[in-house]
């Protein structure tokens, strides 16, 4: 390559320029070295650049001169926006169609059906918050006294009576003592702990628990069965461990064990105890379920138990640790907000007005 004196003077000024962008200095150095007889591979090695980069800027200089070194080549335009009608078609197929023999679309199956890319489908789904690959479970209560029970229980949460205890009570039944078939590996840097997917069963236990909604403490007792006799034993434990001068309001679900004749007789002999039942199919209204979730996630699911005794020891250890630093679960939604949300869900699900909750 031969360059004119004027071009060399410009290139040398650019190569020495302290105020020029470094990429322009680099471009000038590439051309000067090649004009001085240096081979392309040697230029790339000296300037720590690739051979294609050297070829690019030499060709740019050969075509446009020094001006070609001062700016990048125009880049090709971006992707064309998706036509509105195609976006509407993706939404319609997602909402109202299904692939043959399947329950829902995936991005690839819908893309194949419509002749577009799977990334295009995903972009439309994200834009309109569509998630056909996910579902959420629900069940509306059919309890004829749903409204009264919600107001009663939520009222206890938000405005508990003075000089009284409010306890959320329930049983976590059939807790399995599961042992793994092989020892797992401990956690280390770059690797999570491991445990086998299969297990051995060593029996079950039932945890009876009562959560004090004011201070977060839990009264708990593990018993082998889930009958009225065990429930009465737990009621006696609550009676022993709560101040005798305070009324006790128990929030219970509608399990038949809570309503047997023996249980009714016990409550008749202990007038300081008052029962408040949640509506049917409304376990979410019983705050003790939140504690059971903590127990499962932190003490049971990843545990290894070779006997029911080991399982019960782990549960009692979790209870002791929790009560040393209790966490208060605060209820925030008032009854009107809950009833409005349930009512709107009922109207959306039921076409007939008679299906809606009253």
Describe the protein's architecture and organization.
- The chain is α/β, with parallel strands linked by helices.
- The chain has three domains: 5-69, Arc Repressor Mutant, subunit A (Orthogonal Bundle); 87-127; 146-346, Nucleotidyltransferase, domain 5 (2-Layer Sandwich).
- It is 44% helix and 13% strand.
- The chain is built from 13 helices and five strands.
- It has helices at residues 5-16, 22-35, 40-46, 51-64, 84-96, 107-114, 118-127, 146-158, 228-241, 261-269, 288-300, 308-324, 335-349, and strands at 164-180, 199-212, 218-223, 247-252, 273-277.
- A five-stranded mixed β-sheet has the order 3-2-1-4-5, with helices on both faces.
- A hairpin with a 5-residue loop joins strand 2 and strand 3.
- Helix 3 packs across helix 4 and helix 6 crosses helix 7.
Largest sheet: 5 strands, mixed
**Number of helical segments with 4 or more residues:** 13
Termini separation: 90 Å
> What is the CATH superfamily of the largest domain?
Ribonuclease H-like superfamily/Ribonuclease H
The percent range for helix content is: 40-55%
* Uncertain runs: 352-358
What are the main properties of this structure?
Nucleotidyltransferase, domain 5; five-stranded mixed β-sheet; 13% strand; disordered C terminus; 358 residues; alpha/beta; 3 domains; Arc Repressor Mutant, subunit A
Provide a brief overview of the structure.
The chain is an alpha/beta fold. It folds into three domains: about 60 residues, Orthogonal Bundle (Arc Repressor Mutant, subunit A), CATH 1.10.10; about 40 residues; about 200 residues, 2-Layer Sandwich (Nucleotidyltransferase, domain 5), CATH 3.30.420.10. It contains 13 helices and five strands.
């Amino acid at each position: 390559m031969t360059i004119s004196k004027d071009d060399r003077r410009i290139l040398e000024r650019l190569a020495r320029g302290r105020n020029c962008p470094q990429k322009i200095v680099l471009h000038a150095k590439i051309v000067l070295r090649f004009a001085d007889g240096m081979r392309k591979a040697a230029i790339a090695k000296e300037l720590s650049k690739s051979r294609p980069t050297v070829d690019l800027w030499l060709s740019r200089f050969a075509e446009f001169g020094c001006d070609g070194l001062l700016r990048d080549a125009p880049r090709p335009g971006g992707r064309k926006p998706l036509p509105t009608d195609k976006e509407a078609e993706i939404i319609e197929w997602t909402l109202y169609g299904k692939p043959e023999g399947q329950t829902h679309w995936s991005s690839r199956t819908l893309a194949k059906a419509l002749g577009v890319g799977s990334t295009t489908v995903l972009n439309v789904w994200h834009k309109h918050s569509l998630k056909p690959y996910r579902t959420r479970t629900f069940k509306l209560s059919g309890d004829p006294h749903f409204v009264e029970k919600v107001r009663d229980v939520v009222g206890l949460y938000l405005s508990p009576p003075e000089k009284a205890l409010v306890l959320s009570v329930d049983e976590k039944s059939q807790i399995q003592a599961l042992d793994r078939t092989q020892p797992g590996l401990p956690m280390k840097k770059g690797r999570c702990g491991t445990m086998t997917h299969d297990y051995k069963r060593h029996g079950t236990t039932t945890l009876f628990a009562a959560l004090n909604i004011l201070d977060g403490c839990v009264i708990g007792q593990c018993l082998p069965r889930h009958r009225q006799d065990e429930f009465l034993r737990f009621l006696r434990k609550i009676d022993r461990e709560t101040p005798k001068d305070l009324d006790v309001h128990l929030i219970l679900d509608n399990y038949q064990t809570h309503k047997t004749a023996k249980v009714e007789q016990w409550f008749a002999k202990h007038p300081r105890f008052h029962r408040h039942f949640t509506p049917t199919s409304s376990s979410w209204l019983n705050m003790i379920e939140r504690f059971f979730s903590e127990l499962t996630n932190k003490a049971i699911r990843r545990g290894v138990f070779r006997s029911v005794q080991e399982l019960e020891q782990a549960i009692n250890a979790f209870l002791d640790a929790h009560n040393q630093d209790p966490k208060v679960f605060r209820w925030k939604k008032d009854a009107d907000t809950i009833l409005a949300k349930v009512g709107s869900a009922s109207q959306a699900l039921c076409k007939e007005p008679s299906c809606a909750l009253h």
